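1st attempt posting a full record on here, be nice pls
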Amino acid sequence: MKKRTALLAFLLALTLTGCFFRGADELYTVPRPSKDYEALQVRLSEFIAKGGEYAAPLSGELIQSVQLQDLDGDGIQEAIAFFRFPNEEKPMKICVFHQTDEGYETLTVIEGAGTAINCVEYAQMDDEPYQEIVVSWQMSDKVHSLAAYAIGPGQAEELLRTDYDSYRLSDLDQDGQQELVVFRTPPEGGPRAELYDYQGGLAMVGTAPLSGGITAVADGGVRSGNLMGRVPALFVVSAYEENGTITDIFTCQDGQLKNITLDTAIGESGETIRFYTQVTGSDINGDGIVELPQPVPLPDYKITTAAVNFWLIHWRQFDAQGVAHPVFTTYHNDRDGWYFILPEAWGDNVTLTRSDLPGGGERAVTFSYWEGDESVEPKPFLTIYKLTGSNRISRATMPGRFILFPEDGLEGASEANTIYAAEFRDGWDHSLSEREIRDRFSLIKTDWFAAG
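the predicted structure (as tokens):
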């Protein structure tokens, strides 16, 4: 049975996208769907014949019209199909089909009002065999309703329905079951997080305030991660004032939801406010713990405008009490796609300049030693280059330059469209070797916390 289910998943994915891969001798042969697929197609066709049309969820990780999930934990996947019946009072329907030896039978149908299904998730929230289904119903372009359902043969019990700005499923209390945390910014009562747990039913068991100065929770701004000591937490990024962001960190301690970064004296998580938002939270050192950025502007030599051209990023981890602990400092070059970890010995006596060649084939940033005295010129000691174009290899191998990426140097440079290289300057003794420069250099990769 498990082999049949795996084959079904493969064939179903191919069929829904219209993609089949065949050998040359099969190009003119009509593909034969498996019996499992045919049996499921019979059930789906019944709903189509009644006036239904496929209506896949609009967002989230699960956006297929037909999804396969083992909802009851028996090792056999159920099929979940999403339909719209335009002429019915509750037009949106989620149909759950259970696989049997004879084919598929309809287990239950969840009906909803609204114009679409915004997103769907499956969660184990109680001790019952079946997972719960959490659905965001789209009532209009800007209004969504969140509901959770317990399912079983012939039934779909609504456990919860609430309006929301954002939400997250996470096992915050580490009991092996997921809790639901809903974030709301109502016009009255202040922005807050609400914790829902299954205790004989899905009920709100606690609340905790969001920072008072927020204007909205950022789109996609709620993510799960670990604090120091591997304590699970939710990191909530919200828009703050006109151009900033603020991050609230929530944990579950002794069964209570808590905003551990909130400064009760000011009603905000003041430690996490930032107005330079190009760099976002990340597990930047790969230790399984989330680091949050604290941007610090770098002074420019003989530039008196108020605009900041360069920022250093102090990366910090937080413990379960909300205390920040420094990790390291980087310069992030978002324009060129790389970052560099600065040695502690450099301190704050660093300034940066750009020197890009016309045409964009060579983009360069130079690190200089400078103590801030306008009467003393900075002392350049390191330049990092981004090289593109047909002459990128010759530029990367100019006297004094050494390749940072690709990591295998010249061997991989011929296949790379972009080469990153560095060059030591003699303005200051920075005490780093070529190997240490390479170890501190990394390309910027998309991480969870690109959420803002």
